Amino acid sequence: MITEKLDHSRVKATFDVTKDEFEKALDYSFNKNNEKVTIKGFRKGKAPREIFEKMYGVESLYEDALDYILNNKLMEILKDETYSKTFVGGVYPEIAKEEKVERGHDFKVSLIFDVRPEFNLPQYKEVEVKEADTTVTAEDVDNAINNLLRPKAKKEQKEDKTIALGDIAKFDFKGYVDDKPFEGGEAHDYELKIGSNQFIPGFETQMVGMKEGETKDVLVKFPEQYQAAELAGKDAKFVVTIHQVLTEVLPELDEEFIKTLNIKDVTTKEELRAYEEKELKSRKEVAEKDRQTNELINKILDNTVIDMPESLINSRVNQMRKQYEDQAKRYNIPFETFLSLMGTDKEKFETETYNQGKRNAIFSEVMSKIIEAEKLEPKEEEIRAFLNIKDDKKKISQDDFQRAFSNLAYDNLINFLLKNAKYVK
Protein backbone atom coordinates (compact mmCIF):
# COMPACT_ATOMS: atom_id res chain seq x y z
CA MET A 1 0.00 0.00 0.00
CA ILE A 2 1.38 3.38 -1.05
CA THR A 3 -0.32 6.41 0.50
CA GLU A 4 -0.47 10.03 -0.55
CA LYS A 5 -1.94 12.96 1.39
CA LEU A 6 -4.50 15.07 -0.47
CA ASP A 7 -6.30 18.31 0.32
CA HIS A 8 -9.23 18.44 2.76
CA SER A 9 -7.70 15.79 5.05
CA ARG A 10 -7.94 13.04 2.45
CA VAL A 11 -5.58 10.17 1.82
CA LYS A 12 -5.11 8.22 -1.39
CA ALA A 13 -4.02 4.62 -0.86
CA THR A 14 -2.87 2.73 -3.97
CA PHE A 15 -2.64 -1.08 -4.08
CA ASP A 16 -1.15 -3.61 -6.47
CA VAL A 17 -3.61 -6.29 -7.59
CA THR A 18 -1.93 -9.38 -9.01
CA LYS A 19 -3.52 -11.50 -11.71
CA ASP A 20 -3.82 -14.35 -9.18
CA GLU A 21 -5.57 -12.06 -6.71
CA PHE A 22 -7.99 -10.95 -9.41
CA GLU A 23 -8.65 -14.57 -10.38
CA LYS A 24 -9.59 -15.31 -6.77
CA ALA A 25 -11.97 -12.33 -6.87
CA LEU A 26 -13.48 -13.70 -10.10
CA ASP A 27 -14.07 -17.02 -8.31
CA TYR A 28 -15.96 -15.15 -5.60
CA SER A 29 -17.96 -13.21 -8.20
CA PHE A 30 -18.83 -16.40 -10.13
CA ASN A 31 -20.14 -18.15 -6.99
CA LYS A 32 -22.22 -15.10 -6.15
CA ASN A 33 -23.67 -14.56 -9.63
CA ASN A 34 -24.17 -18.21 -10.49
CA GLU A 35 -26.67 -18.43 -7.64
CA LYS A 36 -28.85 -15.84 -9.39
CA VAL A 37 -29.13 -17.42 -12.87
CA THR A 38 -30.76 -20.46 -14.37
CA ILE A 39 -29.04 -22.03 -17.37
CA LYS A 40 -30.92 -24.63 -19.38
CA GLY A 41 -29.89 -28.15 -18.47
CA PHE A 42 -28.57 -27.20 -15.01
CA ARG A 43 -30.15 -26.55 -11.64
CA LYS A 44 -30.03 -22.97 -10.42
CA GLY A 45 -26.53 -22.17 -9.22
CA LYS A 46 -25.07 -25.45 -10.52
CA ALA A 47 -23.91 -24.43 -13.99
CA PRO A 48 -20.18 -25.08 -14.64
CA ARG A 49 -17.91 -22.07 -14.81
CA GLU A 50 -17.04 -22.49 -18.48
CA ILE A 51 -20.74 -22.69 -19.44
CA PHE A 52 -21.53 -19.56 -17.41
CA GLU A 53 -18.66 -17.59 -18.95
CA LYS A 54 -19.52 -18.79 -22.46
CA MET A 55 -23.09 -17.56 -22.04
CA TYR A 56 -22.50 -14.29 -20.12
CA GLY A 57 -18.83 -13.57 -20.69
CA VAL A 58 -16.16 -13.29 -18.00
CA GLU A 59 -16.62 -9.49 -18.08
CA SER A 60 -19.99 -9.96 -16.36
CA LEU A 61 -18.02 -10.98 -13.27
CA TYR A 62 -15.74 -7.95 -13.18
CA GLU A 63 -17.98 -5.58 -11.17
CA ASP A 64 -18.47 -7.89 -8.20
CA ALA A 65 -14.85 -9.04 -8.43
CA LEU A 66 -13.68 -5.42 -8.15
CA ASP A 67 -16.02 -4.82 -5.22
CA TYR A 68 -14.49 -7.86 -3.52
CA ILE A 69 -10.97 -6.51 -4.15
CA LEU A 70 -11.82 -2.99 -2.94
CA ASN A 71 -13.50 -4.27 0.23
CA ASN A 72 -10.41 -6.31 1.03
CA LYS A 73 -8.18 -3.30 0.45
CA LEU A 74 -10.41 -1.21 2.72
CA MET A 75 -9.94 -3.81 5.45
CA GLU A 76 -6.18 -3.42 5.01
CA ILE A 77 -6.53 0.32 5.57
CA LEU A 78 -8.66 -0.14 8.69
CA LYS A 79 -6.13 -2.60 10.17
CA ASP A 80 -3.21 -0.25 9.54
CA GLU A 81 -2.13 1.45 12.79
CA THR A 82 -1.67 4.76 10.99
CA TYR A 83 -5.32 4.96 9.94
CA SER A 84 -7.25 2.69 12.31
CA LYS A 85 -7.96 5.62 14.68
CA THR A 86 -8.06 8.50 12.20
CA PHE A 87 -10.25 7.00 9.46
CA VAL A 88 -13.64 8.79 9.29
CA GLY A 89 -15.12 7.48 6.05
CA GLY A 90 -16.03 9.00 2.72
CA VAL A 91 -14.39 6.18 0.72
CA TYR A 92 -14.05 6.70 -3.04
CA PRO A 93 -12.51 4.08 -5.37
CA GLU A 94 -10.32 5.17 -8.26
CA ILE A 95 -8.78 3.24 -11.14
CA ALA A 96 -6.45 5.09 -13.48
CA LYS A 97 -7.41 5.10 -17.17
CA GLU A 98 -4.15 3.44 -18.15
CA GLU A 99 -4.79 0.46 -15.89
CA LYS A 100 -5.96 -2.68 -17.72
CA VAL A 101 -8.54 -4.41 -15.54
CA GLU A 102 -8.99 -7.85 -17.01
CA ARG A 103 -8.20 -11.48 -16.39
CA GLY A 104 -4.56 -12.44 -16.66
CA HIS A 105 -3.19 -8.94 -15.91
CA ASP A 106 -1.77 -7.19 -12.86
CA PHE A 107 -3.21 -3.71 -12.21
CA LYS A 108 -3.48 -1.03 -9.56
CA VAL A 109 -6.51 0.29 -7.65
CA SER A 110 -6.77 3.25 -5.32
CA LEU A 111 -9.06 4.16 -2.44
CA ILE A 112 -9.45 7.80 -1.44
CA PHE A 113 -10.75 8.29 2.08
CA ASP A 114 -11.11 10.97 4.76
CA VAL A 115 -9.13 11.08 7.98
CA ARG A 116 -9.32 13.26 11.04
CA PRO A 117 -7.67 16.59 10.29
CA GLU A 118 -4.21 17.39 11.57
CA PHE A 119 -3.98 20.95 12.93
CA ASN A 120 -2.41 23.11 15.59
CA LEU A 121 -4.63 24.35 18.38
CA PRO A 122 -5.02 28.13 18.49
CA GLN A 123 -4.64 30.02 21.77
CA TYR A 124 -7.36 28.79 24.10
CA LYS A 125 -6.02 30.08 27.43
CA GLU A 126 -6.03 33.78 28.34
CA VAL A 127 -8.63 34.43 25.65
CA GLU A 128 -10.21 37.82 26.29
CA VAL A 129 -13.88 37.76 27.22
CA LYS A 130 -16.14 40.46 28.60
CA GLU A 131 -16.73 40.39 32.35
CA ALA A 132 -20.11 39.13 33.53
CA ASP A 133 -22.68 41.72 34.50
CA THR A 134 -25.16 40.17 36.93
CA THR A 135 -26.39 43.43 38.46
CA VAL A 136 -30.05 43.40 39.44
CA THR A 137 -31.59 46.86 39.84
CA ALA A 138 -34.66 47.93 41.78
CA GLU A 139 -36.30 48.58 38.40
CA ASP A 140 -35.60 44.98 37.35
CA VAL A 141 -37.34 43.75 40.50
CA ASP A 142 -40.27 46.13 39.92
CA ASN A 143 -40.70 44.82 36.38
CA ALA A 144 -40.58 41.20 37.57
CA ILE A 145 -43.27 41.87 40.16
CA ASN A 146 -45.38 43.75 37.61
CA ASN A 147 -45.18 40.69 35.36
CA LEU A 148 -46.71 38.68 38.20
CA LEU A 149 -49.50 41.26 38.57
CA ARG A 150 -50.11 41.69 34.82
CA PRO A 151 -52.33 38.58 34.24
CA LYS A 152 -54.89 40.17 36.59
CA ALA A 153 -54.53 43.69 35.20
CA LYS A 154 -57.58 45.65 34.04
CA LYS A 155 -57.85 47.76 30.90
CA GLU A 156 -59.23 51.26 31.39
CA GLN A 157 -59.93 54.15 29.06
CA LYS A 158 -56.94 56.49 29.02
CA GLU A 159 -57.87 59.99 30.13
CA ASP A 160 -55.84 61.98 27.60
CA LYS A 161 -56.70 59.45 24.81
CA THR A 162 -53.10 59.72 23.49
CA ILE A 163 -50.99 56.65 22.73
CA ALA A 164 -47.76 56.11 24.70
CA LEU A 165 -45.47 53.09 24.84
CA GLY A 166 -47.13 50.39 26.92
CA ASP A 167 -50.67 51.51 26.09
CA ILE A 168 -53.19 49.32 24.29
CA ALA A 169 -54.67 50.65 21.06
CA LYS A 170 -57.76 49.50 19.18
CA PHE A 171 -57.53 50.56 15.56
CA ASP A 172 -58.23 49.83 11.90
CA PHE A 173 -55.45 49.55 9.34
CA LYS A 174 -55.16 48.97 5.62
CA GLY A 175 -51.84 48.34 3.91
CA TYR A 176 -50.66 49.36 0.44
CA VAL A 177 -47.61 48.40 -1.62
CA ASP A 178 -47.07 50.38 -4.81
CA ASP A 179 -50.40 52.12 -3.98
CA LYS A 180 -52.24 48.80 -4.19
CA PRO A 181 -53.85 46.89 -1.26
CA PHE A 182 -52.25 43.51 -0.57
CA GLU A 183 -53.70 40.31 0.85
CA GLY A 184 -53.61 40.12 4.64
CA GLY A 185 -52.87 43.83 4.99
CA GLU A 186 -56.21 44.92 6.45
CA ALA A 187 -57.93 44.57 9.85
CA HIS A 188 -60.66 46.25 11.89
CA ASP A 189 -60.74 46.87 15.65
CA TYR A 190 -57.32 45.31 15.99
CA GLU A 191 -55.99 45.39 19.56
CA LEU A 192 -52.27 45.88 20.09
CA LYS A 193 -50.00 46.70 23.00
CA ILE A 194 -47.74 49.45 21.71
CA GLY A 195 -44.09 48.49 22.14
CA SER A 196 -44.69 44.75 22.02
CA ASN A 197 -42.93 44.67 18.61
CA GLN A 198 -45.55 42.44 17.03
CA PHE A 199 -45.68 44.55 13.88
CA ILE A 200 -43.07 45.49 11.26
CA PRO A 201 -40.19 47.56 12.71
CA GLY A 202 -41.20 51.22 12.85
CA PHE A 203 -44.97 50.60 12.77
CA GLU A 204 -45.66 50.81 16.51
CA THR A 205 -43.26 53.70 17.22
CA GLN A 206 -45.07 55.82 14.58
CA MET A 207 -48.35 55.21 16.44
CA VAL A 208 -47.00 56.83 19.60
CA GLY A 209 -48.65 60.24 20.05
CA MET A 210 -51.74 59.42 17.97
CA LYS A 211 -55.13 60.22 19.55
CA GLU A 212 -58.52 58.55 19.45
CA GLY A 213 -60.27 59.32 16.18
CA GLU A 214 -57.03 60.26 14.41
CA THR A 215 -56.07 58.78 11.03
CA LYS A 216 -52.44 58.65 9.93
CA ASP A 217 -50.28 57.14 7.19
CA VAL A 218 -47.66 54.86 8.74
CA LEU A 219 -44.71 54.34 6.36
CA VAL A 220 -42.61 51.20 6.83
CA LYS A 221 -40.38 48.78 4.94
CA PHE A 222 -40.91 45.02 5.05
CA PRO A 223 -37.83 43.08 6.26
CA GLU A 224 -35.69 41.43 3.56
CA GLN A 225 -36.41 38.03 5.14
CA TYR A 226 -40.16 38.56 5.47
CA GLN A 227 -42.10 35.29 5.24
CA ALA A 228 -44.30 36.54 2.40
CA ALA A 229 -41.71 36.63 -0.38
CA GLU A 230 -43.80 38.98 -2.57
CA LEU A 231 -43.58 41.64 0.18
CA ALA A 232 -40.00 41.11 1.35
CA GLY A 233 -37.90 44.28 1.23
CA LYS A 234 -40.72 46.45 -0.15
CA ASP A 235 -41.87 49.87 1.05
CA ALA A 236 -45.42 49.95 2.38
CA LYS A 237 -48.00 52.45 3.59
CA PHE A 238 -50.57 51.60 6.25
CA VAL A 239 -53.59 53.87 6.77
CA VAL A 240 -54.23 53.67 10.52
CA THR A 241 -57.34 54.94 12.33
CA ILE A 242 -57.39 54.91 16.15
CA HIS A 243 -60.70 54.00 17.82
CA GLN A 244 -59.72 53.62 21.45
CA VAL A 245 -56.67 54.06 23.71
CA LEU A 246 -56.55 51.92 26.83
CA THR A 247 -54.10 51.79 29.70
CA GLU A 248 -53.22 48.77 31.80
CA VAL A 249 -54.04 49.10 35.51
CA LEU A 250 -52.28 46.58 37.70
CA PRO A 251 -53.96 45.21 40.86
CA GLU A 252 -52.61 46.25 44.23
CA LEU A 253 -49.69 44.21 45.52
CA ASP A 254 -50.97 43.05 48.90
CA GLU A 255 -50.47 39.99 51.09
CA GLU A 256 -53.67 38.43 49.76
CA PHE A 257 -52.27 38.53 46.21
CA ILE A 258 -48.85 37.26 47.39
CA LYS A 259 -50.52 34.20 48.94
CA THR A 260 -51.98 33.26 45.54
CA LEU A 261 -48.42 32.96 44.14
CA ASN A 262 -47.73 29.93 46.38
CA ILE A 263 -44.04 30.73 46.78
CA LYS A 264 -42.49 28.94 49.74
CA ASP A 265 -41.62 31.22 52.70
CA VAL A 266 -42.87 34.32 50.83
CA THR A 267 -45.81 36.12 52.46
CA THR A 268 -44.83 39.81 52.50
CA LYS A 269 -43.82 42.44 49.94
CA GLU A 270 -40.28 42.50 51.29
CA GLU A 271 -39.94 38.73 51.06
CA LEU A 272 -41.33 38.79 47.51
CA ARG A 273 -38.83 41.45 46.43
CA ALA A 274 -35.96 39.48 47.99
CA TYR A 275 -37.16 36.30 46.25
CA GLU A 276 -37.49 37.97 42.85
CA GLU A 277 -34.08 39.63 43.21
CA LYS A 278 -32.49 36.25 43.94
CA GLU A 279 -34.28 34.64 40.97
CA LEU A 280 -33.23 37.42 38.62
CA LYS A 281 -29.63 37.19 39.86
CA SER A 282 -29.60 33.45 39.25
CA ARG A 283 -31.01 33.81 35.72
CA LYS A 284 -28.51 36.55 34.87
CA GLU A 285 -25.62 34.39 36.09
CA VAL A 286 -26.75 31.56 33.79
CA ALA A 287 -27.27 33.94 30.85
CA GLU A 288 -23.87 35.60 31.36
CA LYS A 289 -22.10 32.24 31.59
CA ASP A 290 -23.76 31.20 28.32
CA ARG A 291 -22.72 34.50 26.70
CA GLN A 292 -19.12 34.17 27.88
CA THR A 293 -19.03 30.55 26.73
CA ASN A 294 -20.24 31.49 23.24
CA GLU A 295 -17.78 34.38 23.09
CA LEU A 296 -14.88 32.12 24.07
CA ILE A 297 -15.78 29.32 21.68
CA ASN A 298 -16.33 31.66 18.73
CA LYS A 299 -12.97 33.38 19.29
CA ILE A 300 -11.19 30.02 19.48
CA LEU A 301 -12.91 28.72 16.34
CA ASP A 302 -12.27 31.97 14.43
CA ASN A 303 -8.54 31.52 15.08
CA THR A 304 -8.46 27.84 14.10
CA VAL A 305 -6.80 26.90 10.81
CA ILE A 306 -8.06 23.45 9.87
CA ASP A 307 -8.63 21.57 6.60
CA MET A 308 -11.87 19.75 7.34
CA PRO A 309 -12.82 16.55 5.47
CA GLU A 310 -16.13 16.77 3.69
CA SER A 311 -17.44 13.55 5.27
CA LEU A 312 -17.33 15.09 8.77
CA ILE A 313 -19.00 18.27 7.53
CA ASN A 314 -21.68 16.37 5.62
CA SER A 315 -22.44 14.23 8.65
CA ARG A 316 -23.30 17.36 10.64
CA VAL A 317 -25.19 18.93 7.73
CA ASN A 318 -27.29 15.79 7.26
CA GLN A 319 -28.16 15.72 10.97
CA MET A 320 -29.32 19.33 10.86
CA ARG A 321 -31.27 18.85 7.63
CA LYS A 322 -33.04 15.78 9.03
CA GLN A 323 -34.14 17.72 12.12
CA TYR A 324 -35.86 20.32 9.96
CA GLU A 325 -37.33 17.70 7.62
CA ASP A 326 -38.74 15.81 10.62
CA GLN A 327 -40.31 19.05 11.88
CA ALA A 328 -41.99 19.60 8.55
CA LYS A 329 -43.34 16.02 8.64
CA ARG A 330 -44.73 16.56 12.14
CA TYR A 331 -46.61 19.62 10.88
CA ASN A 332 -47.65 17.60 7.79
CA ILE A 333 -46.51 20.29 5.36
CA PRO A 334 -44.09 20.14 2.39
CA PHE A 335 -40.48 20.93 3.30
CA GLU A 336 -40.33 23.92 0.93
CA THR A 337 -43.46 25.37 2.59
CA PHE A 338 -41.89 24.85 6.02
CA LEU A 339 -38.78 26.75 4.89
CA SER A 340 -40.94 29.57 3.54
CA LEU A 341 -42.65 29.89 6.94
CA MET A 342 -39.18 30.17 8.46
CA GLY A 343 -38.48 33.11 6.15
CA THR A 344 -36.02 31.30 3.88
CA ASP A 345 -35.85 29.14 0.76
CA LYS A 346 -34.11 25.91 -0.25
CA GLU A 347 -30.97 27.59 -1.62
CA LYS A 348 -30.44 29.83 1.42
CA PHE A 349 -31.24 26.95 3.76
CA GLU A 350 -28.65 24.68 2.14
CA THR A 351 -25.97 27.40 2.29
CA GLU A 352 -26.68 28.28 5.91
CA THR A 353 -26.94 24.63 6.95
CA TYR A 354 -23.62 23.80 5.29
CA ASN A 355 -21.87 26.73 6.97
CA GLN A 356 -23.31 25.84 10.37
CA GLY A 357 -22.56 22.14 9.87
CA LYS A 358 -18.95 22.99 9.04
CA ARG A 359 -18.72 25.19 12.11
CA ASN A 360 -20.13 22.40 14.29
CA ALA A 361 -17.68 19.88 12.83
CA ILE A 362 -14.71 22.20 13.49
CA PHE A 363 -15.99 22.78 17.03
CA SER A 364 -16.06 19.02 17.66
CA GLU A 365 -12.49 18.52 16.43
CA VAL A 366 -11.05 21.51 18.30
CA MET A 367 -12.81 20.76 21.57
CA SER A 368 -11.83 17.07 21.44
CA LYS A 369 -8.21 18.06 21.00
CA ILE A 370 -8.32 20.49 23.95
CA ILE A 371 -9.99 17.84 26.12
CA GLU A 372 -7.20 15.42 25.21
CA ALA A 373 -4.40 17.99 25.68
CA GLU A 374 -5.66 19.09 29.10
CA LYS A 375 -6.72 15.59 30.23
CA LEU A 376 -10.31 16.67 30.82
CA GLU A 377 -11.84 13.25 30.09
CA PRO A 378 -14.29 12.25 32.86
CA LYS A 379 -13.34 9.35 35.13
CA GLU A 380 -15.45 6.24 35.48
CA GLU A 381 -16.72 7.24 38.92
CA GLU A 382 -17.92 10.58 37.46
CA ILE A 383 -19.75 8.73 34.70
CA ARG A 384 -21.41 6.38 37.19
CA ALA A 385 -22.46 9.34 39.36
CA PHE A 386 -23.87 11.13 36.31
CA LEU A 387 -25.90 8.02 35.42
CA ASN A 388 -26.83 7.49 39.08
CA ILE A 389 -25.34 3.99 39.03
CA LYS A 390 -24.32 3.13 42.60
CA ASP A 391 -23.34 -0.50 41.95
CA ASP A 392 -19.66 -0.44 40.88
CA LYS A 393 -20.03 -3.86 39.25
CA LYS A 394 -23.00 -2.97 37.07
CA LYS A 395 -22.08 -2.82 33.40
CA ILE A 396 -22.74 0.48 31.62
CA SER A 397 -24.27 0.28 28.14
CA GLN A 398 -22.30 1.81 25.29
CA ASP A 399 -25.04 4.38 24.59
CA ASP A 400 -25.27 5.47 28.23
CA PHE A 401 -21.49 5.63 28.54
CA GLN A 402 -21.16 7.78 25.41
CA ARG A 403 -23.96 10.12 26.52
CA ALA A 404 -22.45 10.59 29.97
CA PHE A 405 -18.90 10.94 28.62
CA SER A 406 -19.94 13.63 26.10
CA ASN A 407 -21.90 15.66 28.64
CA LEU A 408 -19.25 15.52 31.35
CA ALA A 409 -16.35 16.15 28.97
CA TYR A 410 -18.14 19.21 27.56
CA ASP A 411 -18.84 20.55 31.07
CA ASN A 412 -15.20 19.99 32.06
CA LEU A 413 -14.05 21.79 28.93
CA ILE A 414 -16.30 24.83 29.41
CA ASN A 415 -15.35 25.17 33.07
CA PHE A 416 -11.67 24.92 32.08
CA LEU A 417 -11.98 27.59 29.38
CA LEU A 418 -13.90 29.96 31.67
CA LYS A 419 -11.40 29.45 34.48
CA ASN A 420 -8.49 30.24 32.16
CA ALA A 421 -10.06 33.16 30.29
CA LYS A 422 -8.86 36.75 30.58
CA TYR A 423 -11.77 38.90 31.70
CA VAL A 424 -12.00 42.50 30.49
CA LYS A 425 -14.51 45.30 31.09
Task: Provide a brief overview of the structure.
With 425 residues, the protein is α+β, with helices and mostly antiparallel strands. The protein has helices at 19-34, 49-56, 62-79, 138-149, 203-207, 255-260, 269-302, 310-330, 335-341, 346-373, 380-386, 398-419, and strands spanning 2-6, 10-17, 87-94, 107-115, 128-130, 154-157, 168-177, 180-193, 215-221, 235-249, 422-424.
Describe the fold and architecture.
- The protein is of the alpha+beta class and 425 residues long.
- The protein has helices at 19-34, 49-56, 62-79, 138-149, 203-207, 255-260, 269-302, 310-330, 335-341, 346-373, 380-386, 398-419, and strands at residues 2-6, 10-17, 87-94, 107-115, 128-130, 154-157, 168-177, 180-193, 215-221, 235-249, 422-424.
- Helix 1 crosses helix 3 (62-79), helix 4 packs across helix 7 and helix 11 crosses helix 12 (398-419).
- The two termini are 57 Å apart.
Give descriptors for this structure.
425 residues; alpha+beta; five-stranded antiparallel β-sheet; four-stranded antiparallel β-sheet; 12 helices; 11 strands
Helix count equals 12
Distance from first to last alpha carbon: 57 Å
Largest sheet: 5 strands, antiparallel
Report the count of strand segments. Answer: 11
What form results from the Cα inertia axes?
Answer: elongated
The overall pLDDT average reads 94
Give me the oligomer status. Answer: single chain
The parts where pLDDT drops under 50 for at least 5 residues are none
* Beta-strand share of residues: 15-25%
Global structural class: alpha+beta
